[in-house]
Write a structure and sequence with these properties.
- By secondary structure, the protein is mainly alpha-helical.
- Among the domains are: 19-166, no CATH class; 193-274 and 392-493, no CATH class.
- It is built from 17 helices and no strands.
- The chain has helices at 6-26, 34-51, 56-74, 78-115, 133-148, 158-166, 179-187, 194-221, 232-263, 281-287, 290-304, 311-329, 333-352, 361-383, 387-399, 409-430, 444-461.
- Helix 2 (34-51) crosses helix 6 and helix 8 packs parallel to helix 17 (444-461).
- Residues 475-493 have low confidence and may be disordered.
Length: 493
């Protein structure tokens, strides 16, 4: 169930009523929340089955493997613990490797063998990528590692652990929750919290706006343009817009997931904190996909040695961490290059001391602008199917001096309205201008005016069921002609 679909609009109220009806009926009769969790688990699995019933077996497999190995690790001696951890990680990550990376590996291996004159012809799988597999796999592996380092005790309740891995608001595109954060909430008895529900609805509303008004509207408005029709100016303009599209897409999902979680009584990590106000690439990763940044820090960067080592080794640790980040995002050389470049920029910033320096005034504005330009340039590699396609886009920007924007006034109007609202709200929140924080205004009329305007714009300008979330699985259609622009094609399963 995607949050920008009509299915969500009618299904979620039913889920809400069923869940809190059970909470109301059994909260006073039982000391634990077992029945509530059973209901929530069934709902989570039913919603996942709605995507593809077959792939629920993979979800169960990863859950079972990490559950068993965590208990074995906790009950074993040191040397055996290491072997069990290695085995558990390998088995847990195996479905991800097969479904997401096998075709990439076999294509490149066939090409390499063909280059040296060996024609093996390894078969490809060409299987659809199970939704959310990158997210729930990393969440389960993180739990296994935490048990190994005794940060948390192995979970004995099979029910609670299944819910931890499959919790429906976050399974498709995160956030990646840590066991010590989410499992205690799963075990905690729930009662309807009006204040938390209201806060959740606010996040849900704003997330919906980001997704259907900003991200999907940008995509649909410019979808009639193919790569052949784009001059240098339009290519540059669309490249900038893609930075906002992917922000609206992923932040929109994350805010909606956080909002749904709060309505159901759970606090999920805020995955985004106005990333385009960052003054460096290092700061960007403290604001963008925060749960992934934490995961990479705790399970890749620190085990490699972190910063408690020599400078060359520290730079190597940063490089490897963001190489892993690129590989995690997708099985493509463009993702690998994107992650590598992010790592290199952070190494440069650390070598120059820019990672810890914050500026103010005009210097701050300049740094934010320069950082956004760098990020927009790096998104080019993230977006394209091949490095060659990315280079063509870059070449058009710098070598084609035709900067005529062939856009209708309606398209331009939609873009300006959506961008103005999003940038304006992030600006107000970034600098804590309380008088303009309309969602949090003490005046009830101001608050409801903000809610209604946001809902009206969603209804008037929103695009529903037109585009899946880009971050669902990082698998893009190779569409460049009439039905989609080369910058705004939708993801597929």
């Amino acid at each position: 169930m995607l949050f920008n679909s009509f299915d969500f609009i009618w299904l979620f109220p039913i889920v809400f009523i069923i869940y809190y009806s059970v909470v109301f009926l059994f909260s006073r009769k039982r000391a634990d929340c077992k029945i509530e969790n059973i209901v929530l688990l069934l709902l989570s699995y039913l919603l996942y089955i709605k995507f593809n019933p077959v792939y629920v077996l993979l979800l169960l497999g990863v859950t079972l493997v990490t559950y068993i190995f965590a208990i074995l690790i906790e009950n074993s001696e040191n040397r055996r613990k290491q072997h069990l951890l290695t085995a558990g990680i390998c088995l847990g990550i195996l479905p991800l490797v097969i479904f997401k990376y096998y075709d990439f590996i076999h294509e490149n291996l066939n090409a390499l063998l063909g280059y040296i004159g060996v024609n093996v012809g390894l078969p490809g799988l060409n299987w659809a990528l199970p939704i959310g597999i990158s997210f729930f796999t990393f969440q389960a592996i993180g739990y296994l590692i935490d048990v190994y380092y005794q940060k948390i005790q192995a979970e004995r309740s099979w029910l609670d652990y299944m819910l931890f891995v499959s919790f429906f608001p976050q399974i498709a595109s995160g956030p990646i929750s840590k066991a010590q954060d989410l499992l205690p909430q799963i075990k905690q008895r729930k009662n309807f919290d009006y204040a938390k529900a209201v806060e959740g609805l606010k996040w849900l509303l704003w997330g919906m706006f980001l997704k259907v008004v900003l991200a999907d509207r940008l995509g649909s408005s410019i979808s009639s343009f193919g790569i052949e029709s784009l001059n240098g100016g339009m290519t540059l303009f669309f490249s900038v817009l893609y930075s906002f599209q992917i922000y609206g897409d992923f932040a929109g999902y994350s805010f909606m997931a956080m909002g749904v979680g709060k309505i159901m009584g759970f606090d999920l990590i805020n995955n985004f904190r106005r990333p385009y106000f960052s003054q460096s690439i290092t700061e960007f990763w403290h604001r963008w996909h925060i749960s992934l940044s934490i995961w990479l820090r705790d399970y890749i960067y620190i085990p490699l040695g972190g910063s408690r080592c020599s400078k060359p080794r520290n730079y190597f640790n940063i490089f490897v961490t963001f190489l892993v980040s690129g590989i995690w995002h997708g099985a493509n050389w463009t993702f690998i290059l994107w992650g590598t470049l992010h790592g290199l920029f952070q190494i440069i910033e650390k070598a120059l001391g820019l990672n810890k320096v914050t500026s103010s005034g005009i210097v701050k504005v300049v740094r934010i602008f320069v950082n956004f330009v760098i990020l927009t340039f790096l998104w080019i590699f993230f977006r394209n199917d091949t490095i060659h396609d990315a280079w063509i886009q870059i070449e058009k920007i710098f070598c084609d001096y035709n900067y005529n924007l062939s856009l209708s006034w309606q398209v331009f109007f939609f873009i300006i309205v959506a961008l103005s609202i999003v940038i304006g709200k992030d600006f107000v929140d970034e600098f804590n201008i309380k008088r303009l924080q309309f969602f949090s205004s003490k005046c009830v009329f101001v608050r409801w005016a903000a809610y209604l305007i946001c809902m009206i714009l969603i209804l008037l300008m929103g695009v529903f069921d037109a585009a899946q979330f880009i971050y669902v699985n990082f698998c893009y259609e190779k569409v460049y002609l009439e039905d989609s622009s080369f910058l705004f094609s939708s993801s597929h399963y």
